[in-house]
Specification:
The chain contains seven helices and 14 strands. By secondary structure, the protein is an alpha+beta fold. The strands form three sheets. Strands 8, 9, 10, 11, 12, 13 and 14 form a seven-stranded antiparallel beta sheet that branches. It is globular, with a radius of gyration of 18 Å. The chain binds cytidine-5'-monophosphate. The site of cytidine-5'-monophosphate has 14 residues, from strand 9, helix 2, strand 12 and strand 14.
Length: 260
């Protein structure tokens, strides 16, 4: 790792210069943070699970025509991705009231929303990622109105697909956060760009509840001190078919193995 140039270190991931121009290596840490990093713990094996789950989700989304930054998984903790200019927005899509929305609007957690709702937060840790309106995005030039339209359309399509994918394994997709980037390229001498899905999709960035019991299978287990965080992530991975259920290698042995 130290041989490569580090480009950026976030709360749960590190980005290194990639082997070819236009690529980066995304490394998934075990660091788990909440409340803008006020709460931090290192959860053994979490990065391995998120690398695998995010790979799986990005591949499935690629298959339905969502352009993503994912190129291929390199090893247990790293994946090769396309280098993009990150749009400074956290795009949140909600199906069931929970978290900050339930609190902000006084809705009981667990209430089904009348329809899926897309929200935007500004990606600014120093401000605690404040909720913003589309007007702010246009006025401050964080994204062009046509880009915002494309982001909303892609987000709703991702939501539709992921709701179905998780329903198939007995999980309700309550909400999730995604990020997009601009992939710059030259076509016939003219520079242009495409909006693509970036970052990760994992139980760190989604709320996932068991369909039967409503048991939380996501980072709320950490935020709310419920325990069993990596076990819940491993259960998501097992249901997705990424980890072997009992009989094959145990989730524990898989998540402990850092080398491939
Ligand atoms: O906390 P809140 O209810 O606004 O979160 C909505 C969704 O976005 C949750 O799935 C949460 O895990 C995700 N999120 C995230 N990163 C943030 C804020 C929220 O992944 N910085």
């Amino acid at each position: 790792m130290s041989r490569r140039k580090q480009i950026y270190e976030g709360k749960a991931k590190i980005l290194y210069e990639g082997p070819e121009p236009g690529t980066l290596v995304q490394y998934f840490k075990d660091d788990t943070t909440a409340f803008n990093a006020e709460k931090l713990e290192i959860l053994d094996g979490k990065g391995v699970l998120n690398n695998r789950i995010s790979e799986y989700v990005m591949l499935r989304l690629g298959e339905i025509g969502i352009p993503t930054h994912f190129i291929r998984r390199l090893n247990m903790r790293e994946q090769l991705i396309k280098k993009v200019e990150i749009i400074p927005l956290e795009v949140i899509c909600r199906n069931i009231a929970a978290g900050t929305m339930a609190k902000r609007l006084g809705i009981e957690e667990g209430e089904k929303l009348p329809r899926s709702i897309v929200e935007f937060c500004l990606k600014r840790d120093d401000l605690g990622d404040p909720l913003i309106a589309e007007e702010h995005i246009h006025a401050f030039g964080w994204a062009h109105p046509s880009e915002v339209d494309e982001i909303v359309a892609m987000t709703l399509r991702i939501n539709d697909y992921l709701q179905g994918m998780f329903a198939g394994i007995g999980i309700k997709l309550v909400d999730f956060k995604i990020e997009f980037g601009r992939l710059h390229s030259e076509l016939e001498g003219v520079m242009g760009h495409q909006i693509i899905l970036a970052d990760e999709i994992s139980p760190d960035s989604c709320r996932l509840w068991d369909r039967e019991t409503n048991e939380k299978m996501d980072k709320d287990r950490f935020r709310r001190d419920l325990g069993g965080v990596t076990e819940a992530y491993a259960e998501v991975a097992t249901r997705l078919g990424i980890l072997q259920p009992s009989g094959g290698p145990t989730p524990f042995s898989v998540i402990q193995g850092d080398k491939e």
